[in-house]
Amino acid sequence: MKVQAAAISLQDVNFAVVVVSEDLLKSPGEADMAIERFEPVFGGVPVLLMAQNEKGSPVYYGEPDLVRSMADIPIERMPWKEYSAG
Questions:
Q1: Which of 16, 44, 48, 50 is 20 to 30 A from 72 via CA?
Q2: Max CA separation in the chain (angstroms)
Q3: Pairing of strands 47-52, 13-19
Q4: pLDDT(29) > 80
Q5: Residue 40 buriedness (CB in 10 A; 0-12 / 13-18 / 19+)
Q6: What residues are paired with 82 via a beta bridge?
């Protein structure tokens, strides 16, 4: 499976942002399981899930402090890349 993701480092914290469907974010249990599946792909760093809403704005799911840290980061400036996730 291929996923679009960005490896991010903010304030000495490394994490990954993985693009998913908005439907996945509406199911916290499934979103948590997806994070658990993706973390080993990115070397065990924390993973945020990101979807775009109908207006194209990013919606994040994951560790609350990391979600807050992404509020002012434009998605077009993230280092997006395709990763193999299993």
A1: 44
A2: 32
A3: parallel
A4: yes
A5: exposed
A6: 4
Name 28's Cβ contacts closer than 8 Å, sequence gap at least 6: 61
CA distance 4 to 81: 6
Residue that has been written with the tokens 């993230």 in this structure: 78
Single pTM value for the model: 0.94
The pair phi, psi for residue 3, each rounded to 5°, is -135, 150
Which domains does the chain show, CATH number per domain?
2-84 (3.40.1350)
Given this model, what pLDDT does residue 86 score? 67
Contact 83, 11 (CB under 8 A): no
Q: State the Cα–Cα distance between residues 42 and 45, nearest whole angstrom.
A: 6
Rounded to an integer, what distance in angstroms lies between the CA atom of residue 26 and that of residue 86?
A: 24
